[in-house]
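Second opinion, please. Pick holes in both lines of this record:
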Amino acid sequence: MSLPEPRLVFAFEARVDVAESLHVGRGSDEVLMFTPITGGTVAGPRLNGVVVPGGGDWSTTRGGTGRRLAGCPLRRGPSCRSSCRFRRSR
């Protein structure tokens, strides 16, 4: 039995407002930064909402390789809240 080819389907676009990045630390050949997320919107066919202040984007760079992890709370309606996380490596 073979598996079907994976396919990507557009779910949403996140547009976030950010504050100035903060230098958090540095280890051996490593830089750690934090960028606060202060608001924004998420819109698309599978998810819509308002980005609530309080999240942030953690960025780590080691030896020319970067990794990011962002997370933010979302308000999807008057009484519906959830959170969203994004990961990226380069």
Summary: Residues 15-82 form one domain. The chain has a mean pLDDT of 86. DSSP finds no helices and seven strands in the chain. The beta strands are 13-18, 22-27, 30-43, 49-51, 55-62, 65-75, 81-89.
